[in-house]
Every structure is written in C-alpha cells, then in structure tokens.
UniProtKB/TrEMBL annotation:
Residues 1-25 form the signal peptide. This is ABC transporter substrate-binding protein. Keywords: Signal. InterPro entries: BUG, Bug_dom1. CDD domains: PBP2_Bug_TTT. Belongs to the UPF0065 (bug) family. It comes from Bordetella genomosp. 8. It comes from the Bacteria.
Length: 324
C-alpha cells in the first residue's frame, strides 16, 4: 500500500508541474490524431470516444482517427499507446476498470502508472443493481436486511471475480454488511438469462444496459451507485442515501504516453472539455448514464490516485491482488 501512495505523490507532482513556455504546441496538431480504444466497437468506451471525437476534431483542426484494439482486459490497447511516440498524436481512452482494477489484479508487462499520463477526464458512470419484480426485497435497506437474515442465499451475477461490479458489491459488504455470493460470468448475455430464469437473484452493471429492462417492468431497480440520482430515472435512489459514504463510480478519460509535452496535453485537455460541454453531446451522454467530469490534468491525476488507493484496499482485503 505504501507503494500506492508513493506513486500517488509522484503522479500528482508531475501533473501539477508548471509547463515550459509553449513550444511543442505551437504547430500542434499538424496531422490526424489517433485515439486508441482498448475495447471492441460498440463498447461504451468506443461510443464515448466517437461521441466527443467530432467536436475535438473541430477544436483542434485535425481529424480524429479511432482505432479499436481490444483484448486482455484493456492491456493490448493500453500497451500500444504506452509504446507510441509521446508527441500527442497517439492517445488512449482509458476507463477506471482498465487503469485501476486490472493492473491491481493482473501481472501486466507494463506499469500503466509509469507508462501513461492523464490528459483529461471526460465522464463518470454509475451502475444499477436490479432484481426481478417478485424478489422479496424492494429497497436497498430491505435487501441488506434480507441478506443478513438469509446468509449465503443472495446470488449476484457479475462480469467476473475482481471486476468493478463485483468490487462494488464488496464495498457494500464492507460498509453495510451486505451478505452475498458472487457468481462470475464472462458476459452480460448469460447473466441476464440466468437472472430471468432465477439462477441468480441480482445483477449489477452499467445503467444504460439495464434501464430499458426497468422501464418496461421486466426488472426492478434497487439503486444506483453514483453520487446523485440518474437524471433520466430520478425515482431510483442512490446507494449512498441509505449507506452513508458509499460511492462506486466508473470513469472514462484520455491518456497519453508519459513524456508527452505539457503544452500539448493542455491543448488536448481543452478540446475534450469543450466537447463534453457541447449541449448536443450532453443530451446523448445523459442517455448513456454518463455524468460530465471535466477538469485539469492535475485533477484527473488526483481522481486516478484516489481510486487506486480505494480499490487497492478492497482488492487487498479480498486477496485478489496480483501475486509477485
């Protein structure tokens, strides 16, 4: 854990460093910029990149080329970006699971904390906990009480052991004593099939993937993991309303290879912030369950370091940290 905080301090100091007088950014960009997405086409990270890419292209005066390089929990795309020339012409859209959770639980050939530099945080996103309408507990407090009265009987389908949905339930266990059995799956299709057939009682994953089921009455929402209620579903409470201090937010943001000039980073940061603030983009993002979370590279670095410490603690408590 000490190594986490040592890295955090160094990371923040780097992000807060005063940029040298603008020299690199004067002619930047003078050719297309590629943004690597370490997930397949259609994944939320891919949708986000394409959503903001058009506005970024207009602001920067060059085209944005999106390249999908999926595989190995994001490692393939992140590694490709990390090994690129640090000149601002290769960026990568990272998400919290890939740059925090996966490096903590997998023995990767690169250290993303050293290989990548935070450029701009774009969005946070939250998850939704759902059950079939006939499940006995109708609210999160009722669910917690039910789980304690029926230990071991509440099965939660997640996308795998140590994945963000699983960790979000472990955090609920830490803070409120929620008793559950994690049932790991390789994909959401099988989770939904087993939820509907009663092989698991609950599932938790991205809001945008579950809300249509709640809207048409096939599923019942017990809560969302964000700071605030979803604008499109204000009747669904947050976990934090009944479990003080609870928050489990994912996020998406741009990274560059370490060594990318600070003035170039600042230019990309400004372009992404402007894109996220576009009213038309905001409408589409809201439909996806995304909250704008723009700021400076230093602020993004702080979010990264805080989540690395927070989830590193939970992962360590579960014994899921990578073995040296």
């Amino acid at each position: 854990m000490n190594r986490i905080f040592a890295w955090a301090g160094a990371m923040l100091a780097l992000a807060l460093a005063v940029a040298v007088p603008a020299s690199h950014a004067a002619g930047y960009p003078d050719r297309p910029i590629r943004i690597i997405v370490p997930y397949p086409p259609g994944d939320l990270a891919d949708v986000i990149t394409r959503l903001v890419g058009n506005d970024m292209s207009q602001e920067l005066g060059q085209s944005i080329v999106v390249e999908n390089h999926p595989g190995a929990s994001g490692l393939i795309g992140l590694q490709l970006a990390a090994r690129a020339e640090p000149d601002g012409y290769t960026l990568v859209m990272g998400q919290m699971g890939a740059v925090v959770v996966a490096p903590l639980t997998n023995d990767w050939p690169i250290d993303v904390r050293k290989a990548l530099a935070p450029v701009a945080l774009a969005y946070t996103n939250y998850m939704m906990l759902v059950a079939k309408p006939d499940f006995p507990a109708k609210t999160l407090p009722d669910l917690i009480a039910y789980s304690k009265a029926h230990p071991g009987s509440v099965r939660v389908g997640t996308n795998g052991e140590g994945g963000f949905p699983h960790l979000s339930m472990e955090l609920l266990k830490e803070k409120a004593g929620f008793d559950f059995t994690n049932i790991p799956y390789k994909g959401s299709t099988q989770i939904m099939s087993d939820l509907m057939s009663g092989r698991v009682e609950l599932t938790v994953f991205g809001y945008s993937g579950l809300y249509p089921y709640v809207q048409d009455g096939r599923l019942m929402a017990l809560g969302v993991t964000g700071r605030e209620r979803a604008p499109n579903a204000p009747n669904i409470p947050t976990f934090g309303e009944s479990v003080p201090g609870y928050e489990a937010l994912g996020w998406f943001g741009l990274f560059a290879p370490t060594g990318t000039p600070a003035d170039v980073v600042a230019k990309v940061n400004k372009a992404l912030n402007k894109a996220v603030g576009d009213p038309q983009v905001q409408v589409q993002a809201q439909r996806l369950g995304l909250d704008p979370a723009t700021g400076t590279p230093a602020q993004f670095a702080k979010v990264w370091q805080d989540d690395y410490a927070k989830w590193g603690g939970t992962i360590g408590n579960l014994g899921l940290e990578k073995k040296k």
